[in-house]
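lol forgot to send this yesterday, sorry. struct tokens for the thing we talked abt
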């Protein structure tokens, strides 16, 4: 499914279920649901989540900084000649990487930073960093589109937010799981339990096609109905 559909369905359904089950819908729970609904696609650099977190303007800024750093390395003789020229040329070449590759590289570096330095502030940063590193190395709809990825995300949320109640990790975990269920409607489906080759797929649509858009719209409409039901019940309770 497209990112827009994942965002609406994952967030709408998870928060509605949360409200209907008697849990408080807090801003933090909404944020967790929004992120969880898009997070499985972090292994796709051009996905809605990654492209919003690392927009094109930011990539252009990174390119300029790399070119500037290359000039600094060359003219200050940070490395002895001719290695200063070699390093400068490598940095300039890296600055012209395709957007997809550059986003992967930035995510990889953020993951290293969290794993290497973040653990001193919170142990969960090490796990988050390792997950980001892995996401840059696996193919799309790989590890992030599995039961293991769902459990890892829910456990990460639970470990970091359990002192604030159950709403946050439940909303984020449900939204993540709903993303996987939505992708199971496509022709390609998902492999929820690798290394087992079994696929969960219903072959109802293909992303980006006219038929796919119709299926997405039906799912969005059903989500809207559920949201209205949740709102009416909440209004009745107050």
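and heres what i got for the seq, position by position
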């Amino acid at each position: 499914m497209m990112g827009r559909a994942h965002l609406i369905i994952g967030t709408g359904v998870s928060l509605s279920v949360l409200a209907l089950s008697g849990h408080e819908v807090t801003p933090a729970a909404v944020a967790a649901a929004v992120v969880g609904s898009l997070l499985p696609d972090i292994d796709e650099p051009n996905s809605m989540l990654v492209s919003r977190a690392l927009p094109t303007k930011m990539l252009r800024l990174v390119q300029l900084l790399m070119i500037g750093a290359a000039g600094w390395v060359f003219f200050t003789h940070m490395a002895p000649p001719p290695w200063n020229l070699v390093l400068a040329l490598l940095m300039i070449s890296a600055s012209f990487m395709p957007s997809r590759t550059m986003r992967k590289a930035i995510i990889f570096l953020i993951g290293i930073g969290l794993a290497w330095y973040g653990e001193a502030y919170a142990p969960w940063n090490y796990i988050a960093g390792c997950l980001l590193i892995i996401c840059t190395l696996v193919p799309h709809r790989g590890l992030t589109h599995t039961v293991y990825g769902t459990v890892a995300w829910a456990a990460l949320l639970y470990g970091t937010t359990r002192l604030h109640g159950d709403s946050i990790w439940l909303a984020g975990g449900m939204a993540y799981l709903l993303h996987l269920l939505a992708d199971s409607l496509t022709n390609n489906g998902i492999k929820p339990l690798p290394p087992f080759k079994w696929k969960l797929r219903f072959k109802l649509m293909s992303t980006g096609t006219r038929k796919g858009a119709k299926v997405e719209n039906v799912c969005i409409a059903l989500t809207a109905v559920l949201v209205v039901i949740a709102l009416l019940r909440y209004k009745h309770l107050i």
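The chain has a mean pLDDT of 90. anyway ping me if u want another try
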